């Protein structure tokens, strides 16, 4: 890694309100700045979920579904463009949602989630909320109900679950192909090519890419496809090109960091003196004695359901991304199950979490993950580590279980090599991120020559709005100035 900049000027918070960063009221355009309108665009009033309104443009770019085929059908990739609030805007800033499968447009609608950041960044250029191919407004693809079911009342092994999902994947792939959908078009390389088409559509020399999680995976792929056409990268919770499947040992190390955080709170430490041992104890009990609960099927009928160890590992995997969201509830659930209290688990079932045992897939996330895949060397590591890891092989389920099942999708090891680039890059990492981890994020950008990493202490995966200082760091970076901090500290969630 060359020229990675680390600065430490303490953890003093910048007391800046996000709304004061806006140049003008949401609902107006500057009277001094003419507004460009591009092909396929129309003026709209964009509304957030709490009915904040801002003038914007809705548009789309038409792209081939599969660029490898000369006669491929075309699809539309939709976006919403929030015009710059400066007289001399820089490169368009394109937001790349995570998942894969997240909607950039929907993300902008969440008023207290990231909408203020979309507005703040207009100071530097047009801000584009992009719905990547197969997501949001760009998703005209049917989901697939496979007809394969996991057993609701009989214990199943990890191998049996994997085979069921593999059979379901093959059936769904055949179903989509029969409907005239070219699943080979739904890869990160094709999405990266969409970004270059979007750049031309916006008549821009370069783009700035702003992404989180899978969105960073897409941004890193774009550095290979678009040399010389990217201005800056703002990457949060980075997922490298060979990191679609996380290493189970790194997830165990994450639980160790959570334990260290718990140990700073006497009440929490008394409740959870050893969370790794607690988790293992509950998993071992579920392996030998699954818990019978009731759930409600899609017809409203109550049915018996056998809650097994693999269910718990999948449930935990879905709850560990952010300490301030799911971790506190997850630890409480483990503690209750450890002492034989099952009512909280039944409450989860009552909300429909286990109501449908049929295996189903959305095409975009299904195909994107299989296509990005995993190298054989990393797969061997995952398989070896998952035999003893707390969450086994379930953090990224159904990967790696589906790796190689649809061979023609795989992008190959050349795709998975870390990109080489000199594009200025800001990496934002949460110290308690349960899905991507600070050290692995640096590994993902190891061949980028101009990287600044900022750690947000006590934050998790979704870190953008944990502190106003995060916005200030991004703005400093986009302004081309040196980022004079390496750490931002946010309050630690109370685990008790």
Q: Would you kindly provide a written description of the structure presented here, covering whatever features stand out?
A:
This protein is α/β, with parallel strands linked by helices and 496 residues long. It has 2 domains: 18-140 and 184-241 and 418-489, Rossmann fold (3-Layer(aba) Sandwich); 142-180 and 247-414, no CATH class. Helices cover 34% and strands 17% of the residues. The strands form 3 sheets. The chain has a 10-stranded mixed beta sheet with strand order 1-2-3-5-4-7-8-12-13-14, sandwiched between helices. Helix 4 crosses helix 5 and helix 8 (275-288) packs antiparallel against helix 9. It is globular and about 65 Å long.
Quick structural overview:
The chain has 496 residues and is α/β, with parallel strands linked by helices. It is 34% helix and 17% strand.
